[in-house]
Amino acid sequence: MATTSPRLRFTLDSEELGRLVVDVEEDPIGWEQLGLQLHRDAKLHGLTTEYSVQLGFVKRAKQYLERMDELRGIEASVTLTIEQYDPNSFLFIPYYTGRLAFRAKQRTALEFRCNVENAGFTQQFLNQTDKQVDLFKAESLSGTVLPTLAPVFAELHSKAIIKRYAGQVEDTALVSPANYVTDGESRFQNLYFGVGTPTDDEFGIGVLPFGPVVRTSGVDHSEVPIFVTKEAGPFSFDFNLLSRLLIKQGVRQFPILRSLFHRVDVTYFLRINLDAPVVLATVGDDVDESDYSRDVLLRYQGTLPLEIGDEVYVYGLLNVHDIEYDRAGPGYSFEVSLSMQPGSAFRIEAQTTTEPSPCAGLLAYEALERICQAATDQPQAFRSDFFGRTDTASAYAQDGEGSLTFVTGGFQLRGFPLDKKPLTASWKTLFESSLAQVYWLGMGIEKRADGQEVVRVEPAPYFYSDEVVVDFTEPTETKANGLEDYHFNTLELGYQKWQTEQVNGLDEFNARREWALPITQAKNSYSVLCSAVTAGFYLENTRRKRFDASSSTDTASDNDSFLICLLRQAGGGFESERNQRFAQLSGILSPETVYNARLSPARLLRRHAPAFGAGLRHELLRLVRFTFGEGNNEFVSRLATEAQSVVEKGDVRVADLPAPIWLPESYEIKPAMRAEQVAALLANPRGRVRFRNEAGHVCEGWVLDFKHILQEQKGDFTLLRAAQLTALTQ
């Protein structure tokens, strides 16, 4: 098929020098090598348009670019628009709009040569994806004023977590400092029973008070609590305290003076606040002239319902009386000491909760939109049906599936004010390493109806449209290639960070898991590990380290990013999702206080199945087998809208997973392309390309790579084979 050279029109445009249409006789040197290209990102699924050509501009265009180089250097912003003449419509059709790069310019006496790259919005965004953005700063990364963004304050419930305290006396007795019974009120003393440095102390109790202390006169309750609760819940106490009380008779002095006591009474208590105490033991002994020594075992096992701020007391009341001394002498003095014997132990365990707390952050739509605004200097820079809501600034018809995903940080969970600790994120950390992993999302650059470019985020299938945008009816030479990288034999899904280094970690289900796929002829892992934290126990431990209690104390989670599933509250606002939408939550400590059940690894498996399942079309009766899991693998969940439960450690039949979108095979074709076909492909590069192979069989696929060979009027395609053909139009 004979082709004629295309007729092109080149236009330069800049804010400083305005618009310049290049005359035909001044076409830039090298235009014959022009070839618009499309490339699909293997991980993010979106397509970008680019050129890989260098053009040499002459005459008026050369003077234009030299002037821009003098004015702005490498920051010069010159847009190049290329249009192709369509002889059928007698119109110039847009072919490509890009930016001229001055970074590696070349100047000679005849030409000004530079590369063509993506236009400002696309390139500006892609250059900023790894930069941290203060999400509430009304200013872009380059200083452009942006719309003010108010934080969302979501009410976060308290997840029940188990806490423990444990301490014991090992081989050597623990002896308290001595106290003294002397004239006055010191005949009445409080006794406290320590066990030394605790081995577990998740309540923050520290070392228990220990030893005898003089009671304050005139005060009904001068004893001090062993701790004050910061959480509520059923507290189980288990202590075995073997104490030895030693009181020495008065010291003999010269001239011979003596002081003696003849009676010791001690009552031992467990008390909560000012409630009636539990009497643990009562001891009353008459004493002769020898020193007094008495071993007492305090044993208690029981569970008490405690509220936040309750005071817990374990103590003894000592009374030394019937005292005899020479009143002509200096008074009396009896040394009192307490020792805890080996085997003494004190343990507390509780399933605790605290009060709900407000947390500042943003819903995912606004967080992603602000990053796009900050990177591109454009207020309208983002679009997403998946994250959009009926109440976003650009309203959507309905709340998207991921619209109530809350984005916050460790400092914000702890209640730090935003003016002290701002909430920051980058596109790579928030989207590419977190949200895209959890929901299997893709990203691309699109144009709105008004021509404004935006970053588009949707579930990955959106970027593999069923619309046939180009249909090559003539049979074409086809090369089919197997895609080895699209076959997987293992799955690794879940979260990078989840452990709390507490007993609760064994109950956390949002951890990391592995499955084996029924493929033996490939060794390749499909790995999706989200960098943001969704683990409820990790979240709750961070939330409880409140700003007002530890504002000067750093924690390991302060700079972590968190994703939290929310629900709308009836009266407005948002609250954290627990079990409200689930018909089943089992295999966990407290189903009614769960966090992020819909983000579990087994649910990630089902979301990503159309991707890793591309190589399993011959294995429909085989199983995806669970092989390994961190944290809690016993968790089972079922939403009220689901017919089947999702079992974290369960095997899954391949046929029961969502069907694949593509197959692990590519097509290579080089058909002739008319100008209107190129325009149709560029208008929707997500769409299907249909063609006929040498045998006349209909094939369809999506662009992986495409280059338009402009001078030859051909397309050079690498297509990803569609798993199913669309219905052929009659």
Provide a quick synopsis of the model.
It contains nine helices and 46 strands.
Task: Report on the architecture of this protein.
With 730 residues, this protein is mainly beta. Among the domains are: 8-118, no CATH class; 164-352, Jelly Rolls (Sandwich); 468-483 and 662-707, no CATH class; 484-529 and 578-656, no CATH class. The protein is built from 9 helices and 46 strands. The strands form 9 sheets. Strands 3, 4, 31, 32, 43, 44, 45 and 46 form an 8-stranded mixed β-sheet that branches. Strands 11, 12, 13, 15, 18, 21, 23 and 24 form an 8-stranded antiparallel β-sheet that branches. A 6-stranded antiparallel β-sheet has the order 2-1-6-7-8-5. Strand 29 and strand 30 (453-459) form a beta hairpin. The model has no long low-confidence stretch (mean pLDDT 92).
Strand tally = 46
Instruction: Please give the CATH architecture of the domain at 164-352.
Output: Sandwich
Write the CATH fold name of the domain at 164-352. Jelly Rolls
Spans of at least 5 consecutive residues with low confidence: none
Q: Work out the radius of gyration.
A: 37 Å
Distance between the termini: 27 Å
Please give the oligomerization state of what you see. single chain
Mean pLDDT: 92
Helix content: 10-25%
Total helices: the number is 9
Beta-strand fraction estimate: 35-45%
Shape by Cα distribution: elongated
> Largest sheet, described in full?
8 strands, mixed
- Top-tier CATH class of the domain at 164-352: Mainly Beta
Structural category is mainly beta
What are its keywords?
single chain, 730 residues, mainly beta, Jelly Rolls, eight-stranded mixed sheet, eight-stranded antiparallel sheet, 9 helices, 46 strands, elongated
